[in-house]
From TrEMBL:
Lineage: Bacteria, Pseudomonadati, Bacteroidota, Flavobacteriia, Flavobacteriales
Any one GO molecular-function label of the UniProt entry: oxidoreductase activity
Keywords carried by this UniProt record: Oxidoreductase
InterPro entries: Mal/L-sulf/L-lact_DH-like_ah (IPR043144), Mal/L-sulf/L-lact_DH-like_NADP (IPR043143), Mal/L-sulfo/L-lacto_DH-like_sf (IPR036111), Malate/L-lactate_DH-like (IPR003767)
Annotated protein name in UniProt: 3-dehydro-L-gulonate 2-dehydrogenase
């Protein structure tokens, strides 16, 4: 695979011009460029620069309304329902994350359920944002059906990404995981590099578990993380997102040809409500240190807390620039 080095400044400039070309406002274009670039800096190319051509394709198909923005439908104390009006998933998610943070600061906890929105790209973006504002967060989204329920053959559940973040002085803890063993974006990235998955990631067209990302993407059947446990968790998150937002379920999303009009939940908790910040920090560090102190399975390996490797990747790419797939970069430049 051919790669080229791109600085964060160059990527933001190129993407900002691109989004302006597609009639986003200057502020919106710069925000979208910033988020896609930050995801790429953190090593999540699959939902950063690699996802841009798909985003533009969805705009061209009319699945994303560039003039729309999320609006509040109803309020029940510290819980609110919002409608994304089929606007940009990133812009809607940012707005709802910030609203959940505001509700948490005012009430100790805040929840915003969002319906009729689009792909939020990297879910971790919003977990990091909440942590930077001193909030714990629990966020999730449903998706198009892209996994078989455990024991089934057809795709009936989504890989419904889950994000949980905890603020911490020495580096925030941020879990960002799809409920498939590997996200389809990750499989695309490995396929571009002609690499196999380290573990089985789904079924091929012959109903055999496979490490070949292309075979899995062609079959469209990803493997639930934790097998039956991931299958159950996927269904529960879909139920919660659908009920709380009064929006579309994975079933309803799957009736369309493309993944659009999703349901999402943004919950934030302000830990400063308990007035024991030092105790909280010590407890977090105790758990992390206990994990770090464990002997590795193989010499030279180590264990990490969620988000730790993201921080090291971020520092490296900020300093040295990002290695971007040349084919994807050329696609973006041609757009």
């Amino acid at each position: 695979m051919s790669e080229i080095k791109v600085s964060s400044e160059e990527m933001k400039l190129v993407l900002s011009k691109l989004f302006l070309k597609y009639s986003f406002s200057k502020v919106q274009a710069e925000t979208l460029a910033k988020i896609h670039t930050e995801s790429s800096i953190d090593g999540i190319y699959s939902h950063g620069i690699n996802r841009v051509p798909v985003f533009i394709d969805y705009i061209n198909k009319g699945l994303i309304d560039i003039d729309a923005i999320a609006s509040k439908v109803t309020s029940m104390g510290s819980i609110e329902r919002w409608d994304g009006n089929l606007g940009s998933g990133i812009l809607n998610a940012l707005k709802c994350t910030d609203r959940a943070i505001d509700l948490a600061k005012a009430n100790g906890m805040g929840l915003v359920a969002l319906r009729n929105t689009n792909h939020w790209m990297r879910g971790g973006t919003y977990g990091w944002r909440a942590a930077e504002q001193g909030c714990i967060s629990i966020m999730f989204t449903n998706t198009i059906p892209n996994m078989p329920a455990w024991g089934g053959q057809e795709n009936r559940i989504g890989n419904n990404p889950l994000v949980i973040s905890i603020p911490r002085k020495e580096g925030h803890v941020v879990l960002d995981m799809a409920l498939s063993q590997f996200s389809f974006g990750k499989m695309q990235s490995l396929d571009l590099k002609n690499e196999e998955l380290p573990f089985n990631g789904g079924w091929d067209s012959n109903n055999q578990l496979s490490k070949n990302p292309k075979d899995i993407m062609n079959s469209g059947r990803a493997l639930p993380v934790g097998y039956w446990k991931g299958s159950a968790l996927s269904m529960i998150l879909d139920m919660l997102a659908t009920l709380l937002s009064a929006g579309n379920s994975t079933y309803k999303i799957g009736l369309k040809k493309n993944e659009a009009a999703l349901s999402q939940v943004f919950m934030c908790i302000d830990p400063s409500t308990f007035s024991d910040a030092e105790i909280q920090e010590n407890l977090l560090n105790e758990i992390i240190q206990f994990t770090h102190d464990g002997p590795p399975m193989k010499m030279g390996n180590k264990t990490f807390y969620p988000g730790e490797r993201t921080l090291s990747t971020r520092l490296k790419n900020q300093k040295e620039g990002m290695m971007v797939n040349s084919k994807i970069w050329e696609q973006v430049l041609q757009l």
